[in-house]
Amino acid sequence: MWNEAVHQQRSCRKPTFGKLSKLLTEARARSSWLRDGSQVAQQQTLRTYALAFQHSFRVKGRGRPRPKRRKDTLPSLEYTTRGFSIRDHRLRLPGGVSIPVVWSRELPSDPTSVRVYQDCLGYWHASFVVRRDTTPAPEANGTIGVDWGVTTTATTTDAVYDLPYLGHRKRCAAELAKAQRRMARRRRVKGARPSNGYLRAERQTARIAKKAARQNIHDARVWVKRVVDNHALIAVEDFQPKFLAKSRMARKAADAAIGIAKRELVERGLRAGRKVVLVPPAYTTMTCSQCGTRAKNRLGLGVRVFRCDTCGYTACRDRNAARTILATAERNRAGADDVRHAITSFRDGARVRSEPEIPRLPAVGKR
After folding, report:
1. Quick one: which of 274, 338, 336 has its CA closest to 141?
2. Locate the Cas12f1-like TNB domain: which residues (predicted)?
3. Cβ-based neighbour number of residue 278 at 10 Å
4. Are 147 and 293 in a shared domain?
5. Are the beta carbons of 45 and 34 closer than 8 angstroms?
6. pLDDT tens digits, residue range 38-67?
7. Distances (CA, A) of 64 to 44, 57, 59, 60
8. Are residue 49 and residue 80 in the same domain, yes or no?
9. Fewer C-beta neighbours within 10 Å, C or N terminus of the chain?
């Protein structure tokens, strides 16, 4: 259904959910195998595609939806209240499918939809959308600036709230390499069916990689909770770690999981009602946080101490960048959907405000 919607994208200028639904009705009338499937799941797939297509226009740099290959895409089905029910603690789906569910916790209310998906280990999960009572965040008056890095994942204006580099993937590197060599030995020629031994080795490799990823997510959430609960203004460096994948720091950057920590910080800050400011990283390392003077020469990665030639201020390179980010957020105002963007320029040593047009970010929903 997804690939067919992508094909219609090329022939139709703007494939909306209404147009795709009409095409689905015609396709179900022609194909018996399509009628045997759940219409609710098929419509939800088209709805997800339509939202992704609309989202590609709102976010700069996000391309159009692309076709998915079966061997690279894990199965996922979404049902609304018309397509599933819960009876005797079992999930019942169309076609007489009854699934015994291992419940992680009781549902606080009746679910409005469910997404059934498979992870890289072969386990199946059911994610329900429910309404729940939110706990208000504690009152806070503090401010904090966050600068991302590789040696220290997050350096803040207050050293107490720093997120150190924990190196979970580094500790699993030897075990992961051993599992990957086992996969390589058991790999058959291209086109042949993989052996059971290869599938077991592939599963073990995925288990080791997912363990490190879960540890990174857990540590990021614990750190974010401390930051959000104690600060009303959170200035975050709008750092894009994608370019590090092509550098020599690719492995360590992936282990630091900067993207996970940044996403958790922005989402939880919005949910708690905090003021979250995304500051572009340009010249934050070269700018003095005390007088606002920008250094004439770029600082190499080996230089870890910032020294200002104008006022003589000396501080840790990353700590000075975090304070510059916080100062930029406090003296600018340009906002969209509670996520504020700030850009500050310096001319002849004086700080000048600027508020360019910035695309609106999508609102973060509650699940």
Report:
1. 274
2. 271-325
3. 22
4. yes
5. no
6. 899 999 999 998 888 887 777 666 778 889
7. 19, 8, 11, 11
8. no
9. C
